[in-house]
């Protein structure tokens, strides 16, 4: 969550630069346009900014959740998402951009702390907002007095002229220093105590028209939304600037509506100047008639000359600086996209498993290294579990195995001659791991036997004279149990051969022989590494006391 928030706050900076550019263009090119047009454009740009921020946050949050889900999956099912832009990107060769990238990476390393500081500040500002709203409620309910039936009737008549359907209340306040309007559903206009008697009737009507214009335009609600935006993005100068301009244009819009009703600029300007004699209101979340002196002078100048204000020198300088910063940030965020996708596998043998794919996105940072560390830990844990769940089987006595094999050979030799085994057409069979007690002897390539002696007795005698019995496995006797080749199907045999080809152990299947036992893996007479043996043993040896032999010679020496 903190990384999603940090990335969103960081994105708000360059979005703020874009917002500043659009705001500057509105101010420059709408000098002769109405205040309502300028106001609507500024509010629209602020709304687009907020919508863009919301979209970026949910995109970053979705990417973070995706990685969290992937980390909880088995390794072979993980799809790792690595960022291609933002802080995790590969920066250009420029020294300046590399330094900028290092700075962003430094901020990213402290993302949690930065988000915590941001959260504490907005909590403090939220408390300030609540206190401000509470003060408005206090002013509305304390030291208020009726304005009199005459002014209530005047207010009702002005409301009808402005086509306001809601009920608006007029009260005199002993706390408010300037005319303000508070509330949205039940708006109340508060006039400083004594102002009704100190100004002329035309001036009071002008003030009431201005406050009713706020009600008609529903400015109180928009002002609250602005306040929330300023709290969330207190660090973003663009948001603070456009919010200030929106407030100024809001007052200009209300001035235009009030002048349309009163049609008397002199009385209206005199009312503005009279309000300046009162102290400035502290009700920042209410709609006040008179504000700061500079703003008042701009409003008077605009009413007199019918000309909207433009950017001052300081605003132009800041705008140019922001544009330069935006160009730098855009260049720093630009990553090289030479490799769109990278496929990562644990080993060549794991080709049968789904590969881990690294896809470029614009979202999460520092994830690839974290996932690599977690995968390494998982592999180590799996290795330890494998050792605990598959202990080595004790070797049985040597003599019993040799006698069993000799008796089996004698029995088979007395009944049927050993058939000729083709080098490729041999079948895979299942054998027990018990014969592994016989010390392994170097295996030589199989030499096909062309002729056999049909006399079983002479063959047994010859075996006794040479003290060696050699069989090529098609079926085998294991600890007194005869295991037929039907227990092991061709599909599994093909999978084993495919794994050997994919791992690069063999290049072809011609003259292939192998043995997979709980203790070793021998392919074409060569003992293979423990990693490959462990993977094949886990896949295909379903019982700890069995072995798999394919076209494999077993040589036994008798005592």
From TrEMBL:
Residues annotated as domain Peptidase M56: 53-301
Coiled-coil segments on the chain, per record: none
Keywords carried by this UniProt record: Membrane, Transmembrane, Transmembrane helix
UniProt-recorded name of the protein: Beta-lactamase regulating signal transducer with metallopeptidase domain
Organism: Pedobacter duraquae
PANTHER family noted in UniProt: POSSIBLE SENSOR-TRANSDUCER PROTEIN BLAR, SLR0241 PROTEIN
Organism placement in taxonomy: Bacteria, Pseudomonadati, Bacteroidota, Sphingobacteriia, Sphingobacteriales
A family per Pfam: Peptidase_M56
Domain of life (superkingdom): Bacteria
Record-annotated membrane-spanning stretches: 6-29, 41-58, 110-133
InterPro entries: Beta-lactam_resp_regulator, Peptidase_M56
